[in-house]
Amino acid sequence: MMETNTWENVFHQTDSQLNNLEFYTDEVRFLDKIMGDYFAKMLKQEKLPEIRKAMDDLHEINRKLREIKEELKNHQKEIVLLREKVFDESNQWFLEKNEKMNKDLSAFYLNYRDAKSETYNLVEHVLHQEKMKKLILA
Fold first, then answer.
1. How many percent of the chain have pLDDT more than 70?
2. According to the model, what pLDDT value does residue 82 have?
3. Which residues contact 19 (CB under 8 A, 6 or more apart)?
4. Three-state SS across 54-87?
5. pLDDT digit string (tens) for 78-111?
6. Residue 46 has pLDDT above 80, yes or no
7. CA distances to 14, 54, 63, 72, 74 from 67, in Å
8. Contact predicate 58/32, CB 8 Å
């Protein structure tokens, strides 16, 4: 059986993860805004397949973000119940769930970085093309 101190550590770790995900929520909102702001310019450069993929990726990131945040909130509730010994069963199920959640978070962070990079590359390409047009016209 895990000791109370360990439950407190897991609870605080989960709380920290939730706080980190709030930051990512703001980041995804920002990336969505960037895609919206540059959407017309990307279309003019015939980047439709790349735009569609980036927007689909951002949509999936946003969905997964909401899902993981909800799972972490439920996880915290379970930690409190385990700490208070409300559950009589083995803690093995909780440890396995905790490990799965950590793997899900790691996968989310990797997917997020890829989507962010993809978005920035699209916008960077648009900005570069605009700069080149200005230089040619100058």
1. 92
2. 80
3. none
4. HHHHHHHHHHHHHHHHHHHHHHHHHHHHHHCCCC
5. 888 887 775 555 677 888 888 899 999 999 999 9
6. no
7. 14, 20, 6, 9, 11
8. yes
